Structure formats: C-alpha cells, structure tokens
User: Which sequence fits this backbone?
C-alpha cells in the first residue's frame, strides 16, 4: 500500500472543495479494500513529519474501519 497516496487522500478530505473531498473519500473507500491498508495508516500515524490534522483524519478513518469490520459472531 502506498503511504504517500493515503497521506494525500487524508489531506484532501480536509479541503473546503466538496468535489475534492468526495474524490478523496471515494479513493479511501477503494484503498481500504487492499491488503496493507491499516498498516499503511499506522505508518502515517507513526511518522514524525505528518501534520496533526492529517493524523487526526487518519485516526478517525482507522477507528471507523475497525468498527465496520468487527464481527460479534
């Protein structure tokens, strides 16, 4: 999974332009289906040079992905 691509997607989800946000959210929805998505999110969260707002967006997406994928069976 391309960490730079994910970083750019999370950054784009914070933009004011709704078209840019929608495209980034669509790309993230597709990216989360790939193996290594959560690991790449952890790479973003652990990187010292990533801005706090991008880390926050990544953290929230990571949490929501876990909650959507959790099975109670």
Assistant:
């Amino acid at each position: 999974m391309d960490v730079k691509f994910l970083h750019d997607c999370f950054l784009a989800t914070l933009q004011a332009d709704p078209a840019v946000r929608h495209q980034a959210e669509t790309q993230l929805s597709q990216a989360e289906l790939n193996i290594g998505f959560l690991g790449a999110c952890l790479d973003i969260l652990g990187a010292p040079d990533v801005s706090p707002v991008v880390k926050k967006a990544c953290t929230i997406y990571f949490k929501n992905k876990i909650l959507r994928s959790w099975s109670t069976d």
The mean pLDDT is 95. Residues 52-69 form the longest helix (18 residues). Helices lie at 3-12, 18-31, 37-46, 52-69. The CA atoms of residues 24 and 55 lie 15 Å apart.
